[in-house]
Amino acid sequence: MNVLGMFARRPEPGYTKTRLAAAIGDVVAAELYAAFVEDLLQRCPALADSFVLAATPEDQATIDWFQSRLQTGSKLTFQPLGDLGERIDWFFNEAAIAGANRIVLMGSDSPDLPDEIVTAAFQRLQDVDVVIGPAADGGYVLIGLREPRPELFAGIRWSSATTLQDTIAAARRQRLSVELLQPWYDVDVLENLGALLSLQETQGSGAADCPATLAILRKHWPQISQAAELS
Known about the structure:
By secondary structure, this protein is of the alpha/beta class. The chain has helices at 18-24, 26-43, 60-67, 84-97, 115-124, 163-173, 190-201, 211-230; strands at 2-9, 50-56, 75-78, 102-106, 130-134, 140-145, 178-180.
C-alpha cells in the first residue's frame, strides 16, 4: 500500500510563513500559505492509495479549517510534540503500523511540486530504501521509505543548507540505498514568489497547476512587487 503524507500548519497571521511575512506582511503570507494547502489538498490525495494530513496545532480551529478542505477518504491527524526529525519518524512509524510498505512524506511549502515527482518516489521505492526530492535551499521537499528508519532523522541540522547532505550521510552510514529525484524548491522567501508566479503563468513549465495560489499571487502582486523593490 502506498501512503502519501503531508505536514501542514493551520494558517494564522503571525505564525505562518514568518520569513515570507517579514517581507509581505503577516496577513498576506497567511493567505498565500492557505492557498498552497488548498491546492495541495485538491491534487495530492489522488497520487497514492491513502492520503494522510498531519496538521498542527492540535485544536478545534485546526480541525475545522482542515476538515472543510479535505477530500473524502483523506485522513486528518496531528503532529506530536518534538523536533522535526522526531515528528517525521513518528509519521513513518504510524504509516507502517497501518500497513503501508511504500511511504512518502512531503511538506506544504511547495504548492506547485509536479505530480510526477511524487509518483516517481513511489515507483523508485520498489528498488531502493530511501528516495528524496532535493530542495534548492539544501533541504528536501519530500522523503520516502519502505519502512521506518529512525536513524535517518537523528542529529540532522534541520532547516539549514546541510539538511539534505546530513540525511544522505546518515543513510550511507546505515548502508541504505538512496535515490535523489528531480530537484524542486520551497517557497520560503520573497524571491521564490517570482518563480512561483512565472511557472504558473507559463504553459508547459512542468509545475503543477495551483489555481488558488495563482489567484492570491495576482491579487497581492502589487504589494509583493513593491516589497521586492524595497528589499
